[in-house]
Every structure is written in structure tokens, then in C-alpha cells.
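Handoff note, outgoing to incoming analyst
You'll be picking up this chain. Sequence as last confirmed:
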Amino acid sequence: MHTTKFTMMVVVTGMALCLGMSTNQIHAEMYIGGQAGASFPKDLSDVRGTNNFSGTRLSDLNLKDSLAAGLKVGGYFPESLNWLGLEGEAYYTNPEIKKQAVTGNVSILGNSGGQFIIPKTDLHIITFAFNALVRYPGEILQPYGGVGIGLNVAYLRSGNVESDAGFAPTLNLMGGMRAFVNEQIALFAEYKYNRGTFEFYANNFKADYRTHLVVGGLTYHFK
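Most recent structure output, in case you need it:
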């Protein structure tokens, strides 16, 4: 939990820095925008029991592809550092756990150990990330890339599963292309990779989460 609290502090501080750039760097290029696309998650892997079930294992859990949507706010530094930026973003995905046959020796998701069927289980994830960006500051086309840290907040729920929240400090990688329609409005296409390890205390398990995202959107730049 200390790692989670530290990550939350870093993300909040990062977003505050992004919002504060307009005050501290009067000529900084600030922007705000929306994004939407799709998430293509890998299986929940290395599924292991916690609490009284520590040391037990379960086979990987298949996740469903989902839509993704969110917001971002950021800015690039002025003058000689106009290739360097900071960005805070938040986005939502819903990679539900598919109905599937699994094997294991742990009581999980409403079932006892052995071989059993897990029903479809809703999994809602909101990602908060603080990213450092680099770009080629072209007038029309701007390729960019970035790396960040953040927090994945998950909510687990289905008919026979106890509702549960999980938190995962996360690594966020990205790369994309921005194209300016005019001086202040730009369209962008972006690839992201996100990973973390969730722990669901009420359901006595933890698992590694990884996903690829392809999104597009629009940003408004305050120049």
C-alpha cells in the first residue's frame, strides 16, 4: 500500500506541474484534449492467491478487448526546450474477464480449487498517468514519444463474485503523431503500452495486467 500511496502522490504532483506550467512558463505551449480508441489486453497472468491462499496458483485468465476513452492535459517548454513536455492523462477501459475453464488450487472468483468454470466477470479500469514527452516540433506534423508512471484503479464485479477494488502502480509507454489543422487545433493518433500488478483483497488473488492501446483524438493548444 505504501507503493500505491507514493505512486498516487507522484501522479497528482505531475498533473499539478502540467497545470502550473502556464503560470511558471508564460510562453509554454499548453494543451488539453480528448482521446478514444481500443484496448487489446493480454491474459491476466501469474495469477496467485493472497492472504490465507498465499502460495497457490491459477491458470491465466482471458480478457476481452474493449473500447478506451479519456482526457489529457499537458504542455511543452518554451524556446530551446520546446521538444520536451509533460502530460497528465486519465483513460477508461472495460476488459471483462471472459467465461472460461481454468485450473488451480485456490478458491477464487466464487469457485473452489481444481478445474472449474469462471463466469463472465466485469472488470473496469481507470488509468491515471503522468508522462514525460519528447517531440519533433514541426509546424504541421509532430511525431512524439513518451514514458510515464501512474496508477491503475480496477473494479471487479459479477453475479457470484464479491465486488472488489484493486490498485496497481503502472508503467505507461507511448508513441504517436500529431497533425495541426490550424495553429491551435491538432489531430493525433497514438499507441500506448500499459502494465501493472493488481491485487484484489476481497477475492484473495493478484495478477499481472498488460495491455496495448490504439487511440486517436483532438487537442486544443494555447499558444
